[in-house]
Amino acid sequence: MPKAILAWGLVALIGGAAGLLAMLICNYMLSFGGQDNENKHGISSVTATRLGGIAIVAYMVMHLGYQAYLGVYSPGAEELYVLATCAAFFAIGIFEDLKGNLSARNRFSLMLMIGLATIYLSPGLILQPVDISWVDGILNTSAMVAGLFTAVCIAFIPNAFNTADGANGLVAGVSSFSFMALITVAPATLLPFLLACLVGCLVFLVFNLISGRFFLGDGGAYFLGALAGLSLVVISNTTNVSVWWLLSLVFYPVADLLWSIVRRAVNRASPFAPDNQHFHNLLFAYLDQGRQSSMTSNTLTGLFIAFMFSGSALFLSVFADWGPGDGVWFWWVCGLWLAYGLGWRYLNARLCALPTDEGQM
What is the pTM of this model? Predict the structure, then answer.
C-alpha cells in the first residue's frame, strides 16, 4: 500500500491530471489481457502486464490534444505523418501484446511496408547524407534507394528497442535520456512530441521501477523506437549535429540487436529467432547471485545500461564541452562499442546461456 500511494503521488507530480488519467486508462486496459507471466519474460520473476506503453501513448494523446484544443499547437503535414507512423507501429505491438500470434518476421515486414508508405507520402523524411562514406554512397545512389534505406532504418530501430526491453527502466530510460538530449537541438515542430513523450516515459517509469509489474510491451517499445528513429532522421536532416552523437543516444538497443544478429548468423540461426544472450540478460544473471532480490538486480541492470550508454551521451553533451556537432562523437561511439564488446565477453565467459529468453526479435 505505501508503494502504491508513492507511485500515484509521483505520477500526479510528474504528469498532473493527464498522468493520472493515463495510468487509469492503462489499468483499465488490463482487463482485455496482455499478461506477461514470470516464466515467459527473460528477466522478470513476477507476473506483470505488457501494456505499460499505453500509459505513454495515452498521456501524449491527452497532452497534445489539449494543446491543439487551446490553439497553441497545430502540427504540420510531416509531423502528422510522424505521429501516424508511430501510431501504426504501436498498433502492431498492442496486437501482439494481446494476441501473441504475430511472428517477428511478419511484424518486421509490416513495419517495413509502413516505413515505405511514410516515405512515399512524406519524401521530406528521407534521410539526407550524414558524412559517413558508405551510408552516403547508398543515399546518393537514387531517391528510391535512399527511401528504401530510410524505411529499413525506420523499421529496424523500433525492433531494436523491443529487443532491448528486458529490464526495468532500460528502454524507457534510454528513451528519456535520448529525448532530453534531442530536445536541446530539435526543430520547433518536433519539440511538442519529444516533450510529451518524455513526460509519458517518466510517468511509466514510476510504476515500472516501483512495482516491477508494468512492462512497455511490444506496443510501447515499438512506439518509442519509431518516435526516436523518426526524430533522428528529422534532426539529422535539419540541423548540423553529428550523426555519431545521434547514434550514441540510441547506441545500446541498436548495438545489442546488431550483435545478436551476428551471433545468430554465425550459428546459422534465423535473424528473427529468440536470443537469450543479450547484454542485459548476462548482466542480470551476473548481478542476480543472491546478493539482493531479483527485482533489485532487474532494476539495477536496466538503469545501469541506460545511464552507461544514453545517459553518458546526454551528460557529455549538456554538461561537458562536447557540442552535438563535434567530431569527438565518432570516437565516443567507438569507445561505446569497445565497452559493450568487452563487457559482453567478460559476462559471457562467466555465465552459461540462460534457460529462458525474452521471446522477441
Answer: 0.91
Taking alpha carbons only, the member of 179, 202, 178, 181 closest to residue 192 is 179
Could you read off the pLDDT of 15-63 as tens digits, one per residue? 888 888 888 887 777 666 666 654 444 555 555 678 889 999 999 999 9
pLDDT, one tens digit per residue, over 210-251 is 877 778 999 999 999 999 999 999 999 999 999 999 999 999
The residues, any chain, with a CB within 8 Å of residue 320's CB and separated by 6 or more, are none
Residue 324: Cβ-neighbour burial (10 angstroms; 0-12, 13-18, 19+): buried
Confidence of residue 357 (pLDDT cuts 50, 70, 90): very low
| Phi, psi dihedral angles at 48 (to 5 degrees) | -145, -175
Give, in degrees to the nearest 5, the angle at Cα 262 between 259 and 263: 90
| CA 64 distance to own-chain centroid | 20
